[in-house]
Amino acid sequence: MAETSTAQQMLDQEMIARIGRRDQSAFSALYDRLSGPLYSLAMKMLGDPAEAQDALQDVFLQIWSRAATYDPEQSSVFSWTVLLTRSRVIDRLRARGRRSRVVVASTEDTLTGAADASTVESAADTVEKNDEAVRVRDVLNNLPSEQREAIELAFFEHLSHHEIAARLGQPLGTVKARIRRGLLKLRQRLKNL
Amino acid sequence: MISEEQQDQAALYALGLLDADEDAAFESELRANAELRDLVRELRDAAGDVALTAPSLLPPASLKQRIMGEIALETKRVVPMLTQRASFGWIPWAIAAALAVFCGLLALDRVRLERQLTQIRAVDPLMQTTFYTLAPSAPAPSDAKATVAWQPGRQSGVIRISNLPAPQPGKDYQLWAVDAEHKDPISAGVVRVDKNGVAQIRFKPVEKAEHVKAFAISLEREGGVPKKEGPILLVGST
To answer: Any idea of the CA torsion for B102, B107, B113, B114, to the nearest 10 degrees?
Structure first.
């Protein structure tokens, strides 16, 4: 898959195993590796730096307390932490009841995100990560637009398939098929990167 | 064979879109279908990568300090709790004893390997050796362990494994070198444990590995595979 080579996944798994044994230096290293993408995700979904930081704090405290329960058969470490982040963010969106205000930016708007108390990453610091992000973005952009739209609505806005169908004015079966086809294509193309 | 309907459900499940009832029903289907589990894992990883399309930002440095402070506090709170509970006063001693035994076993492993290496060094005094301690990852028993003595100059090493039960029929354990210069781990061959879960084997990776960051053991198809497919059981760096 794109985010992490198999070798990086093994190192991530080792870090998680060490965190499970309460190793603070491994935790610090994992934070350095993942805080950028996870914070970016929280910011895109919440649109508020203070809330995104609180969500990120919840996520990393959860990683600290639940590292021993991580199961590599279910997902990579990166995907596991993305799921934790989405889950924390969705809790916050539900709590404040303003999901409709979430703005989904287009996939072309990288590095033009909100200017706020957060730091836009310097190019020198993020060449490698952005390189991966660019490749994923290219793959996503090359999906048929209706499939990409369905995946983005599901992923960033956490709309259910029923809500996506209503938003797009499409039958439920069509929306399900778009999500399935899009995600299967994404999987195949990311595998080939 | 996975049906189209199952693929639909798998995609919705990977994105967390199923409601509680659908979720429970699909999870029970997952438990009985290994092929479907593999598909879900791959779809979940693909969905995870969608996060990378969000505009790149970094949190402020103060957030890391806040979080590290929280976990340091939590660690401090846990230790006094253990010592104050008189009825469980034996727990720290039991942990200390278990750690002492564990360290003793590791030390024995290391002494054994170092003795072997001393003999090898007598033949080649210029040789340098690096040790890697491999710890268990989720599917492996918690007491499984391995030590690798790696000789980069010779591109060969010795691995000693203990407490790793023999795999189920049709499967083999495979050793991998994680090298900074290679995208994928390099196979160092199949390793077979005896009935006591022990193995001591010399190995040589199939490709040159000059910057080995870690070694890992995964569960693979019988006879091994050219590229890692199965779950990691043991992994460790220097």
So the answer is: 170
Question: Do residues A69 and B139 make contact, with C-beta atoms less than 8 angstroms apart?
Answer: no
Domain with CATH 2.60.40 in chain B: 128-236
Quote the pLDDT of residue A184.
93
Q: Which of B87-96, B206-215, B227-236 has the lowest mean pLDDT?
A: B87-96
Cβ within 8 Å, pair B59-A72: no
pLDDT per residue as tens digits for the range B122-151: 555 445 678 888 988 877 888 888 988 888
- Would you call A29 an interface residue with chain B, using a CB distance cutoff of 8 Å? no
Determine whether B218 is exposed, middle or buried from the number of CB atoms within 10 Å of its CB (0-12, 13-18, 19+).
buried
What local confidence, expressed as pLDDT, does residue A111 receive?
36
| Annotation: CATH topology of A1-99+112-120 | Rna Polymerase Sigma Factor; Chain: A (1.10.1740)
Interchain CB contact of A153 with B (< 8 Å): no
Question: Closest by alpha carbon to B34, among B175, B141, B135, B168?
Answer: B168
Nearest residue on chain A to B55, judged by CA atoms? A110
The structure tokens listed for B198 are 């022990």
Q: Using an 8 Å Cβ cutoff, are A82 and A35 in contact?
A: no
CATH class of the domain whose range is A121-193: mainly alpha
Q: Which two tokens stand for residue A190?
A: 């990311």
Q: Does the beta-carbon distance from A57 to B63 stay under 8 Å?
A: yes
- Convert the pLDDT of each residue in A143-162 to its tens digit: 999 999 999 999 998 888 99
Q: Give the minimum alpha-carbon distance from A99 to chain B in angstroms, rounded to a whole number.
A: 15
Amino acid at B60: P
Helix, strand or coil for residue A5? coil
Q: Given CB atoms, is A102 within the 8 Å cutoff of chain B?
A: no
8 Å CB contact of A7 and B48? no
More confident residue, B48 or B115: B48
- Provide, rounded to the nearest whole percent, the portion of chain A with pLDDT above 70: 78
B37-62: string of b/e by CB count within 10 Å (b at 16+)? bebbbbbbbbbbbbbbbbbbbbbeee
